[in-house]
Amino acid sequence: MDIAEWKRVFENKATKMQQQDPWQLMFDENIFPNRPNMGWKQCIGNTCATFRCSSCGRGWSSNRVMVVFHMQLRNAKGTIKIRPLHQQCKNCSDGPMEKPCIESSSIYVLMQNLVEKIRIKCYNERIELKKRHFKSYDGNSPHEPAHCQGCQLKILSSPLYNFTMITADTKRMNPKEWESIFQTKVGILNPTHVWCLMFDDSITPKAPKMGWSEYIRNTSARFTCSKCGRSWPSNRVMVIFHMRLLNGEGTVKVRLIRQNCKRCSNAPMEKPRHESDNINVLMEKLMDKIRIKCYHEDLGETNRPFIQLDVKSPHEPDHCEGCKLGICQRE
């Protein structure tokens, strides 16, 4: 992407601002959506772009490309940080995330909208936002959340993704709490790197993909049967983490191992509900593993016990997904 073109278009549009404060515009892959630093404002725009895979050379277009803007006005000087979100080739196994190529006409629309947001958020002007349409591409295939950074960071609306987010299982496990605690912990890692956490039931224990590392941890949790409503605690609940650091971007995939009700015939497997204290323990231990496996730091082992629940019945392997996968800790 040509930063000079973005600056030129922005400066042209900024003339509409009554204030003549100087503004600096820069690309910054380290800004995190929905988490601007103190004193900064955010806006996120959707546009269209083309991509090209650096592994196989395949090109594709998308009308679902998000651009994150963080902006700050301080001492009559403005700064804008821009992060266009990436997509990945669906044909390549573990293909890298690629930056979008955004046409001048779409940059033009983005900058018009950005200037309006600056006037509202930084200068506290009361103006009516105009609805501007970017030039869209003819799409021959549906949007694929698994290959979209915007979907992975949960800022891109997608019918498939929204469906996943509103299932009963995800309501019980509260993914936002996991993500919030995760983001409070990643501060100990390299500050120039960006890490995201996502739930992925498709990862296979003891078989991470090439370039990925694995960490499996036991904890405690509660379960509720969606068939009969019965609840039960367990201190034998496994959590699988697959992690990768690539080009300054870290990804952690999480799979929560399930159990099912021993009283119901053909009972569905249920996802666990973890207490906040135990999520904290999991995230602290995960940070240690990331530092060892992704940053190759030499750390001593630390013992962080989870909070055990009062369990009155023995663990039942027939109703435990971890036992069936051969990863459940046995005493």
How would you characterize the overall build of this protein?
Its main location: membrane. This protein is 24% helix and 27% strand. It has 331 residues and is α+β, with helices and mostly antiparallel strands. It folds into two domains: 145 residues, no CATH class; 155 residues, no CATH class. A four-stranded mixed β-sheet has the order 1-4-3-2, covered by helices on one side. Strands 7-10-9-8 form a four-stranded mixed β-sheet, with helices on one face. α1 packs across α2. The radius of gyration is 23 Å and the shape is elongated. 30% of the residues are buried.
Question: Which short descriptors sum up this protein?
Answer:
331 residues; four-stranded mixed β-sheet; alpha+beta
Topology record:
Layout: H1 3-14, E1 23-27, E2 41-52, E3 59-74, E4 77-84, E5 87-88, E6 97-98, H2 104-121, H3 149-152, H4 159-165, H5 168-173, H6 175-185, E7 194-199, E8 213-224, E9 231-246, E10 249-256, E11 259-260, E12 269-270, H7 276-293, H8 321-324
Parallel strand pairs: 1-4, 7-10
Antiparallel strand pairs: 2-3, 3-4, 5-6, 8-9, 9-10, 11-12
Helix pairs in contact: 1-2, 6-7
**Biggest sheet features:** 4 strands, mixed
Count of distinct strands = 12
In total, how many domains does the architecture comprise?
Answer: 2
Q: Strand order across the biggest sheet?
A: 1-4-3-2
* Unreliable stretches covering 5 or more consecutive residues: 157-171
Secondary-structure element order, as H and E?
HEEEEEEHHHHHEEEEEEHH
- Give the overall silhouette: elongated
**Helical content class:** 10-25%
Strand content: 25-35%
Q: Helix- and strand-based class?
A: alpha+beta
Radius of gyration (Å) = 23 Å
Termini separation comes to: 56 Å
Q: Compute the number of helices.
A: 8
Mean pLDDT across the residues is 85
InterPro entries: R-trans_p, ZAR1/RTP1-5-like_Znf-3CxxC
Protein name: (Atlantic silverside) hypothetical protein
Pfam family, one: Zn_ribbon_3CxxC
Main location: membrane
